Amino acid sequence: MASKLLNIALAVFAIVLPAVAMATEFTVGDDQGWTINFDYEAWAKDKVFRVGDELVFKYTAGRHNVFKVNGTVFTNCTIPPPNEALTTGNDVITLATPGRKWYICGVNDHCANYGQKLAITVLEEWASPAPAPSPSTTTAPAPSSAYGISVSGH
């Protein structure tokens, strides 16, 4: 009985843990944060972004902001309406869908003249592991008594 419960617990753990452990939190710009004169293209180049991951934009509130924009707005550094900006200085964006994503700073000319813009590609989330077989279909080998050791269920 105890081994059956252990198998069930391990199966649940194996299914739940990867979903929790797979999400990654990316601090945009690492130690530099969200700032001007930083190469965000180089920063993002070797990273793999997946659905469920989080982008954290850290900056001094009032000095910068974050807009999620489309590709045209990104290319042209067109500043959206101020009420669409994230402005806390610790803005967390959960990547909810796969595809290309664009972010800019809308303060002054930070996007156009100082490169404060980020473009990433978000991939599908990690595939879920195959479900574990149900305990009723799993049979464990009978305990061996080849060495004179008795195994009991108590």
TrEMBL record:
Chain positions covered by the region annotation Disordered? 130-154
Q: How does this chain sit within the bilayer? A: Single-pass type I membrane protein
> What name goes with this protein?
Uclacyanin 1
Q: Which organism is it from?
A: Vitis vinifera
Where mainly found?
Answer: membrane
Keyword set for this entry?
Copper, Disulfide bond, Electron transport, Glycoprotein, Membrane, Metal-binding, Signal, Transmembrane, Transmembrane helix, Transport
A GO MF term = metal ion binding
Query: Per the record, where are the segments of Low complexity compositional bias?
Result: 135-146
* Record PROSITE patterns: PHYTOCYANIN (PS51485)
